Amino acid sequence: MRAAVCTRYGPPEVLRLQDLPTPTPRKNEVRIRIRATSVTSSDCYLRGLRLTPAYRIMARLTLGWHAPRQPVLGMVLSGEVDAVGSDVRSFEVGDRVFGFNRHRFGTYAQCVCWPGDGLLATRPVNLTDEEAAAIPYGGLLALHFLRKAGVRAGQRVLVFGASGAVGTSAVQLARHIGAEVTGVCSTANIALVASLGASTVVDYTAQDFTDRNERYDLIFDAVGKRKSATALRRCRHVLAPGGACISVDDGTPKLRREDLVSLGELATNGDIRPVIDRTYTLEDVVDAHRYVDNGHKRGNVVVTVP
């Protein structure tokens, strides 16, 4: 099978296309013929090992010292089950699925074997593989943190970084819950964020949201503290009594299969929609990583696998 291999930690150019043996599923695994994946910010952090020195050493010990022990990156997929292990009962050959695995990786390839009881669910029938691949990463993370914060109908929620993969999902999910959503983004993304259900959109290039008179029950940092630290330094100044500020960098998210199923149902019903900025082919995965490294993608960058 064809795959993009991470030959060492470094810039996008460390990714090289190679021919690898097609994996055989173990008794508890399914093999998925991948049709689409996505390049996430987490993929790029792992590829470049862009961490503080202390975390970089820990990451090398855990993931591999000079290069990832699992050389094929990629956490998200949409595709078709083409083989099942003897113990798998939840899927059959021919099932269309989408999913997320932050431990196994392997989706920058034509095939991958994942546990049948993992974060894998039936693909929404009304979505293409490209659209389905744009849901799990941002959707699962946003859903986890909104639940952790206890968001309820009628609350005021501000999403900082509302145009990214997590942010576009958070805006839609908070709106679906019944919250009044304010999105913070750049000028170019105002129309997009408004179309996702934000009742107010603040252009951070023109206004500091902490200078506004509004008060929020939750401020959700959807981009991470390395980028948001300066902008959010006064966030508690605009919190309502009992309000909270939470970041995607706060702890290790507990991701659940039932949440992936719920996201699929919401997408099927049109309650959320995937946001795709650009689409590349597997042969152009280096260009996809270069684009994501720029830090200005809207929603998701999808890679199709021929």
Describe the structure.
The chain has about 300 residues and is α/β, with parallel strands linked by helices. The chain has 2 domains: about 1-135 and about 275-305, Quinone Oxidoreductase, Chain A, domain 1; about 140-245, NAD(P)-binding Rossmann-like Domain (Rossmann fold, 3-Layer(aba) Sandwich), CATH 3.40.50.720. It contains 9 helices and 14 strands. Strands 3, 4, 5, 6, 7, 13 and 14 form a 7-stranded mixed sheet that branches. Strands 10-9-8-11-12 form a 5-stranded parallel sheet. Strand 11, helix 7 and strand 12 (about 240-245) form a beta-alpha-beta unit. The longest helix is centred in the middle third of the chain and has 14 residues, at about 135-150.
Task: Give the gist of this structure.
The protein is of the alpha/beta class and about 300 residues long. The N and C termini lie close together (about 10 Å).
Descriptive terms for the model:
Rossmann fold; 9 helices; 5-stranded parallel sheet; 7-stranded mixed sheet; Quinone Oxidoreductase, Chain A, domain 1; 2 domains; 306 residues; alpha/beta; globular
